[in-house]
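User: For my dataset I need records formatted as: sequence, then structure tokens, nothing else. Please produce one.
Assistant:
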Amino acid sequence: MADRSAPSCHLRLEWVYGYRGHQCRNNLYYTAAKEIVYFVAGVGVVYSPREHRQKFYLGHQDDIISLALHPERVLVATGQVGKEPYICVWDSYTVQTVSVLKDVHTHGIACLAFDLDGQRLVSVGLDSKNTVCVWDWRKGKLLSMAPGHTDRIFDISWDLYQPNKLVSCGVKHIKFWSLCGNSLTPKRGVFGKTGDLQTILCLACARDEVTYSGALNGDIYVWKGINLVRTIQGAHAAGIFSMNACEEGFATGGRDGCVRLWDLNFKPITVIDLRETDQGYKGLSVRSVCWRGDHILVGTQDSEIFEIVVHERNKPFLIMQGHCEGELWALAVHPTKPLAMTGSDDRSVRIWSLIDHALIARCNMEEPIRCAAVSTDGIHLALGMKDGSFTVLRVRDMTEVVHIKDRKEAIHELKYSPDGNFLAVGSNDSSVDIYGVVQRYKKVGECIGSLSFITHMDWSSDSKYLQTNDGNGKRLFYRMPGGKEVTNKEELKGIQWASWTCVSGLEVNGIWPKYSDINDINSVDANFIGQVMVTADDYGIVKLFRYPCLRKGAKFKKYLGHSAHVTNVRWSHDHQWVVSIGGADHSVFQWKFVPDRKLKDTLHIAPQESLVDSNSDESDSDQSDVPELDSEIEQETQITYRRQVYKEDLPQLKEQCKEKRKSAASKRRERAPGNSIRLHFVHGYRGYDCRSNLFYTQTGEIVYHVAAVGVVYNRQQNTQRFYLGHDDDILCLAIHPLKDYVATGQVGRDSSIHIWDTETIKPLSVLKGYHQYGVCAVDFSADGKRLASVGIDDNHTIVLWDWKKGEKLSAVRGSKDKIFVVKINPYMPDKLITVGIKHMKFWRRAGGGLIGRKGCIGALGRTDTMMCAVYGWTEEMAFSGTSTGDVCIWRDVFLIKTVKAHDGPVFSMHALEKGFVTGGKDGVVALWDDTFERCLKTYAIKRAALAPGSKGLLLEDNPSIRAISLGHGHILVGTKNGEILEVDKSGPITLLVQGHMEGEVWGLATHPHLPICATVSDDKTLRIWDLSPSHCMLAVRKLKKGGRCCCFSPDGKALAVGLNDGSFLIVNADTLEDLVSFQHRKDVISEIRFSPGAGKYLAVASCDNFVDIYNVMSSKRVGICKGASSYITHMDWDIRGKLLQVNTGAKEQLFFEAPRGKKQTIPSLEVEKIGWASWTSVLGSCCEGIWPIIGEVTDVTASCLTSDSKVLATGDDFGFVKLFRYPAKGKFGKFKRYVAHSTHVTNVRWTYDDSLLVTVGGADTSLMLWTYEMEGHRDSRQCDSEESDLDSEEDGGYDSDVTRENEINYTIKALSTNIRPMFGIKPHLQQKEPTLDERQGVVRPPVSRALPQPEKLQTNNVGKKKRPIEDLILELVFGYRGKDCRNNVHYLNDGADVIYHTASIGILYNVATGSQSFYQEHNDDILCLTVNQHPKFTNIVATGQETQQICQLQLLLFTCGMQ
């Protein structure tokens, strides 16, 4: 189906008519190149008046509402509205993004301002707190943020003469801010009696702490510091919207339509009243002024831009006009000339020249205009009005021909018939009226078939038929001119339509997404000749489709620029241009149409880069003709890494079980065991869903990962060391360029990336807080300072880190589909590429954001799914491997050529000094020259090539290759089957590490007298492993089905295996050949056990609730154990081989007699007395303590008891391996806990001599060996565990003081209820109770413990006139906070002073004079204090208070108090 693909032509924005004057201010400036920068809708415009040329910045995806110019006047910052608005800093020469600032504001960005040297940018949000943020904009880093004000802020400015000071103003306030450290503190301006408190609209800062501000009543308020010192009354007759400072002085513009110029001391120079000039009009209101030399730019409320030359100030030059208030819906194009006509709710109709890019005529009507049409001869212009009337004008001189009102509701659509005889008028009251043009617009017909308002109409070429669309999405046909509805399908078949502007109909089915509301496409226009059509929708997008477009969900190219809804769109008469108009943004966009043939010449022009995918061929629906996804890739994309419960949830879950904890804490619990285990060796490598996760380290060891363990493997000694800092599946691994550090990313609710040293196995940095659910790709930059990571959240967020500082540099949403690889450009650490499902993107860093461009495929094909990528020998060369086996070669963002490299997907690539190496699903490693011209050598991974020193056996020839790395003269290969191989350049292959393949591993058995174990997994293999130091796989056998359990016979010669289809086998334990097999069940065999001693019986438990008992010698079933109400989970024999203990999924503990299978009831005290041959049970009083507090959430899946019956090892659903003392009686026993498996540990077994514990992880496919260490043998190691779930309350608890302090709650008092209820009579009004002495008439001299009163207070003040108290000054504070603080008294100045705190005050006490000085910047209790000990920072003190801020205070001169 070719017609579903996107058209190959495209549109280029050529001109935008309009300027955003409404609801914005100060948004119009001269750049250094004397160009004019402003914005309209979602586009930043740079206009050159000399060349009459516009350049566009298209980095926003919603209305821009604020703009600031950098002091050097080249860079521009713009802020937009939206749910997650961002700020773009861009270059006005190149119109490319320099930096993106995001993730802080919500709703929108109301104001922006650069500081004097242009290093910092301040922004104000539109959120309820009007948040003020200060940015280091180059780095995209937030330096400080604070709530701005409870009401709107209209302007903010840096004080250009004092660093770190800002001023903001808005509704009834002005605030003076100081930036200290990372805290912004405001002080409100004091209006006093000098002026009325009122709304301040704009401001400018001058020398000596003077600030000028423009008020709502037209006065200018002059501030010194924070006080209002004078007002300049009547500067303007109404509100002053804009104030601009320049070298010569200040310019102000107001609602009165005047611009006034002032000198540097704010003495008036001149007034320019724009209303009185030629172009002026009543009601003109100035929103923006910019004064530069002898030119002044003025932007008005009604979307005009004037340029005034000072010496000809009464002749302003109008350089831009646009529609103003209300919505813009009417658009028509002239049938023979390059003219467009628009009409709007502002009641004006305007004619634009598409060649001169200028307004050539304007006429004001009585009513808002909603639609327009030009007659076929181009003489008449018909306008449909909002009040139901329509007017016809002569195009030549805009004089009225006729005005007719036949309807009461708005006219939505007008169309002249192709022969020029009729005008069809469609209105909101569901009818279409037909008027005869020649009969002076007499009504000749009426169409009344619709039940909803008319939205679109088209005439047939012969003018005999009319088709309409209405608000219900119905398409109807009428015979003209009478208006009779046509329902006969035959009659309609041959109709040729003169135009196509309808949104419903077979020909335009494809413009609708597969699932969509029928009203969100506002306009369509088809270009029959070019076989394309253009649409306009409610999301601000103009789209280009093929025409006709028959199937829903067709591909398109999309263009952004309009902010909200695009109301109408039309081709020009010669199809050279497309004109689109925006409803709320009042703007008219003119797009140049670039047909296919021209595209070939423009291939070298890079695609417009933007933060949102513009001109993408990818549309909302899936491509229909995409090659089938490879099965392996499909499987991988379907893996979900989401967990019901994450390890991060544990503390919360425990918190919810508080009651249980309290009851448990009161009981005496058994200690944790003295012995411990240590991870010794791991069999396994994660290859089935990871790639490029295998490297040589500096010292020639091999680093990779499996489960939650980072493994460093020494291939000479066959030993492993482990990084155990992760607590869930590791999904990716990257190595530092120096090959000494490694970064690993894991699964988690708030997933973390760990960077660790492969020598010391210690973490260097842990990065958290930006990835949800998991991290699937990481990469270091070539200098090793940066790290890129990709998350597995729905947007596959890409983050760039400075990993040493733990700081996020930039982030961006990557793609809806899975991303497999991220690579940082080795030559330019600000660039990176990502590849994934139908995804190849080139990113460059811009401040806090990343800007992406899709790979340009051109005529070479379509975006394939990419599986791997590397950079080449220059900064612009990149190579990617596809899912079809090709290698794509890219220069910059363009695909130059493709080379066939493998059969099936190319999963891994590695760049060498000279050349490349690739590996694919076909199991071949290929070496290439440095241009991918020649394949130099291939190595097929085959069993025949295995060298004698291998640590295992290859399961199959040509396994799928997932990772390749080179070093030390070898090629290191990781396969999907979990094998790590070393390929010698001469050909032989050594297998180093191997584990199970994808699928869960449940079956585990240890040999009764040899260091050997057997495992069986859902990957349909049975494997025998050597547990002695050679650590290799001894044998493997493929099974017809996966298996879940296995068991050695007591003599170790036979091995029983239970399979998932209900059958089981007994095989020879050495050769793994069948001895016998049975099938009596349909469901999974969940456990299988030989009876002890001679192994006479075999008990086989299945998931259909039965245990079958077989006689091994006679190979017959001799008994069935019935009575379990759920599937069987665990089974143990007693020593005599006469009794079976069974656990079920319903947590039942049952007993059956062998061999007949009769159910027995045994009291729990007796159970303990029975000698059991093994204990793998998880139920019963002996192991009550192994169930965690959160037992409802997680299951204990397995247990195993040592042969001396002292230590019970368990595995659970959280991936923990725990050791308990046995018997673990009483709830919530204490334990030692070890993390290495990621999700559930499915089985645990001790070896025959208890020297090793063997554990298998379910989904992580790994087999782990732990050495068992006796009590004395303990080095301090990282993996020895947290002791247990419960804290140390029962270990003697806390001292009473500590307990009390621990329970203090520092809630902000103002927010909680009043602490002391206020009632009663105020003290001075109370009736005094006479004391005993007074009653007895004894007079005592006053006894006071206070110091004698100072002289000046003893003078008699009677009779003096009291001065009113101006201010209170703190003189002395009694008290020191010791009740709940510590280490908060320090000497300063060699013991001359003491610093301490109480309440919210820092106190410096001079020991010699006894005087105090105070730090009073805190506004709540100080809780801690420390002094900087560094000689460079003497007398710096930090204090922390109860709310969220820390102040740093500096003690400067103690005589002047504190600063």
